[in-house]
Design goal:
By secondary structure, the protein is an all-alpha fold. The chain has one domain: DksA, coiled-coil domain (Four Helix Bundle (Hemerythrin (Met), subunit A)). The chain has 4 helices and no strands.
Length: 114
């Protein structure tokens, strides 16, 4: 397994998340409620857009936490090992998402019966 490849991929993902967060900072600011400047419908649209931007930022933060946890596993030499059973996580699975902490079997057990 090419750990350096995954580390680079994780660092790039973290940089992308930070850049996207910075780019959308303004859309998460409080909505101005001046009725003279903005009509009721426009204000509602702005508030909806703000709520969506806040939710997207929350999801980015969750992804950043997963990236940081994966980078910690890279640093301590446990990257690629399932946190639940200790078996190796398949490279195809890590190629899909290098932040995944479990193998397919343990992820299926955690999801419960379908």
């Amino acid at each position: 397994m090419d750990i350096a490849h995954y580390r680079a991929k994780l660092l790039a993902l973290r940089d992308d998340l930070s850049a996207e967060s910075e780019k959308t900072r303004g859309s998460r600011q409080p909505v101005e409620l001046d009725q003279q400047a903005v009509g009721r419908v426009s204000r509602a649209d702005a508030m909806r857009d703000q709520a969506m931007a806040i939710e997207l930022e929350r999801r980015r933060e969750q992804q950043r936490l997963r990236v940081d946890a994966a980078l910690k596993r890279v640093a301590d030499g446990t990257f690629g090992e399932c946190l639940a059973c200790g078996e190796l996580i398949g490279e195809k699975r890590l190629d899909l998402d290098p932040t995944l902490p479990t193998c397919v079997a343990c992820a299926g057990k955690a999801a419960g019966p379908s």
